[in-house]
Amino acid sequence: xTVRSPSVGPERYRLDGKETATVLSAxxxxxxxxxxxxxxxxxxxTITTWISVKSACVHGEDEDDPLIVAPGATDPAKVxxxxxxxxxxxxxxxxxxxxxxxxxxxxxxxxxxxxxxxxR
Length: 120
Description:
Blueprint: E1 2-3, E2 11-12, E3 20-27, E4 30-41, E5 44-54, E6 72-74, E7 82-94, E8 97-104, E9 112-119
Antiparallel strand pairs: 1-2, 3-4, 3-6, 4-5, 5-7, 7-8, 8-9
């Protein structure tokens, strides 16, 4: 599935529950990566995203030969670092409307939720 947004550009999701990874920034061994899973459940698509931040080299890696070398798509098996939940989005159609409900964790513990309804 491809979601097109003018502010972010197209984002592609697998709908089989397998992880995909997109490197957002990389400098030597330090990188930030978005990890995503998308699952179809009857008439809903649920997209869960995490941010993984790796701040140092791992065993067998050095600054001159990092596992991840540049922003863009990468193999999720190459992603190391601490994961934090970024968001969970539930997308579904209700009549002629498309509803996107997104929950994000918040510092301090109370998550925030937003719902956007798109109509033709």
